Amino acid sequence: MRIQFLGGVDTVTGTKYLIEANGSKVLRDFGLFQGRRKESRELNEAMPVDVQAVDAVVLSHAHIDHCGTIPMLAKHGYDNPIYATRVTRDLCDIMLKDAAKIQEQDAAYLNQKTNRKGVEPVSPLFTMEDAEAALKLFKGTGYETITVAPGIRASYIEAGHILGSAMNVFTLREEGREVRVGVAVDLGRRNLPIVREPELMTDIDLLIMESTYGDRVHDDAKEADDQLCEVVQRTIDRGGKVLIPSFALERAQEVIFHLASLYSEGRLPEIPVYVDSPMADKITQVFHESMQYMNEEFHELQAKIGDVMRPDWVTFTSSVEASKKVTSSKDPCIVIAASGMCEYGRILHHLKHGIENERNTVVMVGFQAAHTLGRRLVEGQEEVRIFGDTFKREAEVRSLNAFSAHADRNDLLDYVRKVRPKRVCLTHGESSQRKALAEAIQAEKLAEEVIQPGRGDSVDL
């Protein structure tokens, strides 16, 4: 029995683990690497596992860094089950088709831009056909325990991260032995809008846990309203636009929720809000159909104002023409557009046309991985490249630290204290964050051993 870490170590993207027991092999997540273009392309193209030997995939949630290369499995001939909560299955139908569309469009755009002799054409990482083939393999489940392969059972428990997200407890049996492995990647935080609180695991031998914020503490999630109100009002006062790069899944809906709360209290004027993401539009519909998974805070606001996710002052723009009108408009407004790390999607067009305007503000509401455009903006780089062209950054850039769906250092340590695993394995974090969290766990003697695997490393069970 062993677990091999194929991705999501020393980084926060590309999460994929291979679990082996009783002759069975199960993948937990198969996510997209993001960062430097050439390096990411190479990592995403490489298949670190023989897909013909994999019995099942257990998927945690629908964020691209966890599900984004599942179409690559189908592309290479995988045809066994992919287990996910029913909400995650529905969201992946949107996310993976959109990812395929982006792959195909970006390849076409780059080939047009470099259409000259001596330049080899770019091919998409995967196609819509690959995504649709993978989606046919999805098996929806509830928050329950299921047998995913001989000798391997997986329990789905609430992660409190995004809608439909789950942590897993894998019960592995081989030759009369039993080992329980908990995977708390991604682990949510308390007091988030919309989603329910994360649940605790019990009787865990090895806890695989994220370390995304292992060296820092978030602002209180309850401060998100205040932080958003301040930056929006200041930008409006100077006649600018608020540009919010956002994950289309969950974060876009959270921003709408906070704006709805502020508008309902009269703390902000109802200026136009554009959600410039066809994918976010479709995802919001899934939220509408999944009200039973929402927390009490959401239902209270819904009872007060009516439709929280689609209020009158929010416009979802689907067509390219509508998006261009928002981009070209000089009127103050709020634009929420994917992607959250500014690596692709319509936010790049808004940044291209708005980054050199000192009246505008770029508001970061999520983690920015190393080597992404989002990270470069957060780090204050004065010049950035967008679509291959260089732009001088004149717009204000603000990071709102109360917005995060990941547990921070204190949350992570508290989770280990309560679970009390025999061993802890830290993944899904950059090196400094992971090291800091490991030292804190060791200092408190919360586990017998703390492991920090590298990509390709295995842990015997």
Please render the helix and strand layout as text:
Elements: E1 2-7, E2 16-21, E3 24-28, H1 37-45, E4 56-58, H2 64-67, H3 70-75, E5 82-85, H4 86-113, H5 128-135, E6 138-141, E7 145-149, E8 152-158, E9 166-174, E10 177-184, E11 206-210, H6 224-237, E12 242-245, H7 251-264, E13 273-275, H8 278-288, H9 296-305, E14 314-316, H10 320-328, E15 334-337, H11 347-354, E16 361-364, H12 373-378, E17 383-386, E18 389-392, E19 396-399, H13 409-419, E20 423-427, H14 431-444, E21 449-451, E22 458-460
Parallel strand pairs: 3-4, 4-5, 5-6, 10-11, 11-20, 12-15, 12-16, 13-14, 13-15, 16-19, 20-21
Antiparallel strand pairs: 1-2, 1-22, 2-3, 7-8, 8-9, 9-10, 17-18
Helix pairs in contact: 4-5, 4-8, 6-7, 7-9
Please explain how this structure is put together.
- The chain has 461 residues and is of the alpha/beta class.
- It has 2 domains: 2-216 and 405-460, Metallo-beta-lactamase, Chain A, CATH 3.60.15; 221-399, Rossmann fold.
- The chain is built from 14 helices and 22 strands.
As residue ranges, the low-confidence spans are none
Rounded average pLDDT: 94
CATH architectural category of the largest domain: 4-Layer Sandwich
**Which percent bin holds the helix content?**
25-40%
- What count of helical segments does DSSP give? 14
CATH class of the largest domain: Alpha Beta
Annotated CATH homologous superfamily of the largest domain: Ribonuclease Z/Hydroxyacylglutathione hydrolase-like
The order of strands across the largest sheet is 6-5-4-3-2-1-22
